[in-house]
Design goal:
Elements: H1 4-29, H2 35-58, H3 67-92, H4 96-129
Helix pairs in contact: 1-2, 1-3, 2-3, 3-4
Length: 133
């Protein structure tokens, strides 16, 4: 069984370390030019990936669906590619990687929504099987 909850949480923790390290580097160097990179590492990488992991932990049936693998691939790829893409946009006015990663992230968010919506149909199926007294 794939532990998508743990995969998301490990990626989140790695993002946290990278985000904190970049924050310390910027503070020490007094160069805050990469602040958007730092913010996206923390938001997309740490916060969002951790929330995805906690949702997969709370609803283990989501990890049994085929979409879970697509979700981790899209979200993980986007979380890894978006920070360097933003850095390239900020430092070199080169945006293709940031744009590509943004669309990967959008895809991951759409898959997450589909995963969440699947819980409604699952709860309706369970309530029909176990009627309330």
């Amino acid at each position: 069984m794939n532990r998508f909850d743990l995969q998301f949480l490990v990626l989140a923790a790695l993002s946290l370390i990278v985000g904190v390290s970049l924050g310390i580097f910027m503070a020490a160097s007094h160069d805050h030019q990469l602040m958007p990179v730092h913010a996206h590492i923390n938001l997309v990488g740490w916060a969002s990936l951790a929330l995805f992991g906690l949702v997969y932990r709370a609803y283990p049936e989501l990890g049994q669906r085929r979409l879970a693998k697509l979700h981790i691939l899209l979200a993980g790829s986007a979380a890894v590619l978006l920070p360097p893409g933003i850095a390239m946009a900020v430092l070199y006015q080169s945006e293709p990687l940031a744009i590509t990663a943004s669309f990967l992230w959008l895809g991951a968010c759409i898959v997450f929504l589909i995963q969440l919506l699947s819980l409604f149909s699952a709860s309706e199926t369970n309530s029909a099987a176990f009627p309330a007294e």
